[in-house]
Amino acid sequence: MYEVTLDPSGRTLALSPGGNAARRFHAVWLRDNAWDPETRAPGNGQRLIALRDIPAETTITSAQVSGQVLRLTFVPEHKVIEYDIPWLIAHAYDRVAPRVAGWTAPEIETWDSGFVNRVPASDFGVVRSDSAALRDWLDQVARYGFGKLVSGPAKDGALFEVVELFGYVRETNYGRHFEVRTEVNPTNLAYTGLGLQAHTDNPYRDPVPTVQVLYCLESSAAGGENMVVDGYRAAERLREESPEWFDVLTRHCARFEYAGSDGVVLRSRRPMIELAPDGELVAVRFNNRSTAAITDVPFDAMETYYAAYRRFGEIIDDPAMEVTFRLNPGECFVVDNTRVLHARKAYSGMGTRWLQGCYADKDGILSKLAALGGGSREAAE
């Protein structure tokens, strides 16, 4: 049972879903979000009008509820529009919002080393042939920021078949893909047997590639285990330890640079911990190899900034934060490059270790997940 109360001015109304707290809506918002065929294209839902086409003085003169439908009359257009009430409730903006800086959406779950036995993993062949299995795997990748696929073909270029599950390859100066194995005179430390600190890839790009795929073709060298760290959880720990340090890394930009290839000079300026205007944690950028001189922090804040930067790195390096696993031939992992840092242990020159990597975009994962009926942000809220 729904009840609606119209404000005398006609500029707002309150909708009460059954005994629950009323949700308020503005007339102009309701008119802008109408789903009648004159406002939205029936085929794709895109708006057919601009805000300029809606009178600024729009008000509601009549509001009636019939079952799950809300019927409104708008003036000065004298237009009658019906709304699906469950849709309105799912999209209500009159709610108490979590506004502690660094909050994450309900569909995001942060983790630490205790996650080692819960790593999202699925069979490559199964997710290719079963849309429900693909949906469930993508849902976990979206929730936790990474996931593994096993039992895939150990063949050159198999990583492209992984990307085809949800999107498209993002080509860079490294090409459509890159090789990860020991090289003589490498252009990037990733191509040596050295261990690498947990990092996000390509922070010097704007925008950064938001998804990375690493696919194993050979793995007989000793060591070289892959490791992931949840950057969101690291940011939460920093905030818990020192709100001041968390704040300084969110308020000031770091600078990142890469110029290791002929004809390539890539630079970006972004915070190491990035928040949306309402305080939502939306990205982490951390890569000691690519950090340039930091020049966007005021003199009086620089010591605090470096203390925060140091502690953030210590948290990232803490074994209590890492999940380690070994990739065997035919296995890969997909990682959200705006959230999860990845690394590898050092490996010896004996035997072989050959991985192929490429980049893609997170919107492809989220789009495919939504198309398959996976979790949505509105439903989670």
Q: Could you characterize what this model shows?
A:
The protein is of the alpha+beta class. It has 2 domains: about 90 residues, NE0471 N-terminal domain-like (2-Layer Sandwich), CATH 3.30.2020.30; about 270 residues, 4-Layer Sandwich (Double-stranded beta-helix), CATH 3.60.130.10. About 25% of the residues lie in helices and about 25% in strands. The chain contains 10 helices and 20 strands. The strands form 6 sheets. The chain has a 6-stranded mixed sheet with strand order 7-8-18-11-20-9. The protein has a 4-stranded antiparallel sheet with strand order 10-19-12-17. The protein has a 3-stranded antiparallel sheet with strand order 1-2-3. A hairpin with a 5-residue loop joins strand 15 and strand 16. Helix 6 crosses helix 8.
How much of the polypeptide forms β-strand, as a percent range?
25-35%
The CATH class of the largest domain is identified as Alpha Beta
Give the domain tally.
2
What is the ordering of alpha helices and beta strands? EEEHEEEHEHHEHEEEEHHEEEEHEEEEHH
Count of β-strands: 20
Q: Can you tell me the residue ranges where pLDDT is under 50 for at least 5 consecutive residues?
A: none
CATH architecture of the largest domain: 4-Layer Sandwich
Question: How large is the count of helical segments?
Answer: 10
Per CATH, what is the topology of the largest domain? Double-stranded beta-helix
Strand order of the largest sheet: 7-8-18-11-20-9
* Helical coverage, percent range: 10-25%
